[in-house]
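Structure first, sequence second, as always.
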């Protein structure tokens, strides 16, 4: 994984893609937050997290060009993602711990900030565990040197749920008042 990640990040496209998506986030986060009724700065954090996820998952693998759409890959991808033994294997084992950690951590910032922005952890978690499914199908269809595998979905979903839990914890911690605040003074 680390060799692949180094090769991937050594290309100019990941940095340029993230920069472009970050600029879009910077320009659109405030109007989007206002429209959705979300908090402004956490919306920017969620959008930057989404930009990182898109950059790391949707660009072609190193030294691979995007082929034409391959819709025939949908069936094999669905089989890989919804196969109970493959999902169990993804939960219980991994050949490359660095890959697991990377796939888990990738989703934490996006969902953490989405919970702070929207204050709807259930919805954030529901959407966030489905986003990796869409990513895996997109990778399979793009024919860009990426594989549709259950391990990625499971690890991304674990990271998404972890980010939601951390967001809930941060929300609850920030809304607590210190003892004595808001109480009437003794008489």
């Amino acid at each position: 994984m680390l060799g692949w990640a180094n090769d991937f990040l050594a290309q100019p496209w990941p940095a340029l893609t993230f920069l472009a998506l970050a600029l879009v986030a910077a320009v659109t986060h405030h109007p989007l937050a206002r429209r959705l009724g979300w908090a402004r700065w956490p919306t920017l954090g969620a959008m930057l997290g989404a930009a990182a996820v898109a950059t790391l998952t949707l660009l072609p693998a190193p030294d691979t060009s995007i082929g034409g759409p391959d819709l025939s890959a949908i069936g094999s991808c669905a089989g890989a993602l919804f196969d109970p033994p493959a999902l169990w294997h993804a939960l219980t084992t991994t050949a490359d711990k660095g890959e697991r950690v990377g796939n888990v951590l990738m989703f934490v910032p996006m969902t953490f900030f989405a919970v702070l922005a929207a204050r709807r952890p259930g919805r954030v978690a529901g959407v966030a565990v489905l986003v990796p499914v869409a990513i895996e199908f997109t990778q399979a269809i793009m024919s860009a040197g990426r594989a549709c595998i259950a391990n990625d979905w499971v690890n991304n979903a674990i990271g998404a749920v972890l980010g939601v839990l951390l967001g809930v914890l941060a929300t609850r911690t920030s809304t607590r008042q210190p003892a004595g605040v808001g109480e009437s003074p003794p008489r």
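Margin note: Residues 12-175 form one domain.
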